[in-house]
Amino acid sequence: MRKKNKKKVLVVEDNPNMSGLLADMLEVFDVESVSAADGIEALGIINEREFGLVISDLRMPKMSGTELLLAVKEQFPKMPVVLISGYTVETADDETVSQRADGFLSKPFKMNELREVLNKFM
Q1: Global pTM value
Q2: β-sheet bridge partners, residue 85
Q3: Burial profile 45-77: b = 16 or more Cβ within 10 angstroms, e = fewer
């Protein structure tokens, strides 16, 4: 029996603890993850490898999740981007987020919420 290719998610999170936790959660669903510490690093990675989904923190240094969202959608319009944040979309005060992001997870999110995102986009 041939092993099925693992699905890949690019996790963009400046907090290494959160990034590690998310990677562990994705592994439970047999999803491979690659981590980037900020949007600039993420753009470099996304141009070199194929991903089925980008999950990005909304607030990060160097490049915000919103800026990354716009850059990804410009280069890869069909690539799903889900933003995560301890803030709601309303307090993020950015219509771009709600209009362009494919999904939103509020921290702390639960395994079933992550599963729903994976089922929807992968």
Answers
A1: 0.88
A2: 106
A3: ebeeeebbbbbbbbebeebbbbbbbbbbbeeee
* Residue ranges per structural domain of the chain: 7-116
Coil, strand or helix: which one is 21? helix
The residue with tokens 């753009």 is 43
Query: Residue for token digits 């491979």?
Result: 32
CATH number of 7-116: 3.40.50.2300
Helices 16-28 and 111-121 pack at an angle, to 10 degrees, of 70
pLDDT digits (tens, 9 = 90+) for 7-62: 899 999 999 999 999 999 999 999 999 999 999 999 999 999 999 999 999 888 88
Residue with tokens 């490898």: 49
